[in-house]
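Work Package 4 report. The design task specified in the project plan requires that, given a folded chain encoded as structure tokens, an amino acid be chosen for each position. We show below one input record used in the internal validation round.
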């Protein structure tokens, strides 16, 4: 290599030997500041969560108070569903019963009409 390039490389090496420890120290200081601020942020977040604790407890109590009426509403809805189902079954059974009775009545009326028609027909005697 040429002497100018060699001289430049030696100068850069000497400069690096001087600047790298300084940059390392600055980086360590910056990391320390970052960790200190991060620790402060964690402490502040912890305080905020502690301040919210009574509010969270009040919300829990309110939810517990609401739970009983909700359970009652659910039970009532189930009761209404059962009543509707029973009413549908009763209506179905009633319609089946009425249909069967009407069929029997129709059969009986046809039988009575047939008997009445048979009685009202004049008897034709064969020898006349």
């Amino acid at each position: 290599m040429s002497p100018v390039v060699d001289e430049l490389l030696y100068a850069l090496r000497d400069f690096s030997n001087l600047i790298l420890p300084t940059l390392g120290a600055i980086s360590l200081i910056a990391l320390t500041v970052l960790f200190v601020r991060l620790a402060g942020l964690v402490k502040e977040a912890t305080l905020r969560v502690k301040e919210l604790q009574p509010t969270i407890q009040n919300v829990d109590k309110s939810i517990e108070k609401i739970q009983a009426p909700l359970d009652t509403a659910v039970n009532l809805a189930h009761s209404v569903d059962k009543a509707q189902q029973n009413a549908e079954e009763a209506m179905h059974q009633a319609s089946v019963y009425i249909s069967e009775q009407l069929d029997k009545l129709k059969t009986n009326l046809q039988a009575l009409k047939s008997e009445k028609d048979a009685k009202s027909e004049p008897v034709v005697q064969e020898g006349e």
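The first helix runs from residue 3 to 120. Validation will be extended to a larger panel in the next phase.
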